[in-house]
Amino acid sequence: MTQSVVTEAPATEADVPSTGSDPRVRWVLLAVGLVAALALPWFVYPPVAMDIVALALFAIALDILLGFTGLLSFGHAAFWGSSAYVTGLIATHYGAPFPVAVLAGAVFAMILALPIGYLSVRRSGIYFAMVTLAFAQMVYFIAYQWSGLTGGENGLQGVPRTFFGIDLVETESFYFYYAALPIILLGMWGAWRIVHSPFGRVLMAIRDNSQRARALGYEVEKYKVIAFVLSAGLTGLAGGVFAINHGFVALTELHWSTSGEVVLMTVLGGIGTLWGGILGAFLTVMLADYLASSGFQGIDLVTGSVFVLVVLLFRRGVWGTVRHRYLARRLRRATRRGAADTRE
């Protein structure tokens, strides 16, 4: 009986892979995405390109909770920012290569997420969101007060890009991008494995009907905590790379507005799609960079207006709407073929 909730959970849009059931389309998308990631710093300023892929992983990590578990977290800045600080401190004080520092930051984010997740998942809906926000603000306050370690309002400055003595990576943003990209791609692959594993199917079942999942013997709170910790770990990977990329960790990385920004990216691209987080991060960062480089001051006003328009015109987000129409067209074709076969 317990197996049935994994394989026969009510199918929703988020349950269907973004490419439908055609593996050829899936492989084409993966190839296009990989080529785009490799080519990005040739067309975009490399530090901005690194921000795009780091924030894309951040959005994907949040989507594991929001789109696949049904939990809206407004506190993920705590894991993004705390990992950035730990990564920066280890890289600065111990001279560790940045992949080691980033991994340490991700582990710290997961450790931090364990008690927060354990206490937060006992609530749902807006109450869960507010509890995570409260914990995140506590972490922000601690970082603000502990200025001797974090730098307080001045932030953590002079974070090095130590990479086994390879000068090109340590001094050139272009080469650093390619050295750090495997960390981001590994995190994205991990998110894909989580979503498409039996564990991910249980998360979807909990999202769709937690009472039924509990009645079938699944420890709902336990699965939610594990999903919360895994999401925090992936967020930590992204936050650590972001810190190394900038060579600086600002206190704003722990602020609630950072959590709101990544929620915006996820919704903009499409909840429960994974690819939507990538597209949402790309659109948001590129728009903000374009407006900033043109000297425009009201960046938040424009991005907020774009978000409202997308929500009104694309109910499922940009990628979610494209995917939905593609799947609907395939379904209509299959139905027509089935009807034709029946008549014959």
TrEMBL record:
Spans annotated as Disordered: 1-20
Highest taxon, organism lineage: Bacteria
Main localization (coarse): membrane
Pfam family, one: BPD_transp_2
The protein's name in its UniProt record: Branched-chain amino acid ABC transporter permease
Keyword vocabulary terms for this entry: Cell membrane, Membrane, Transmembrane, Transmembrane helix
GO cellular component, one term: plasma membrane
Subcellular location: Cell membrane
TM stretches of this protein: 27-45, 52-74, 94-114, 126-146, 175-195, 225-244, 264-287, 299-318
Membrane topology: Multi-pass membrane protein
Transmembrane helix keyword on record: yes
Organism, as annotated: Virgisporangium aliadipatigenens
Listed GO MF terms: branched-chain amino acid transmembrane transporter activity
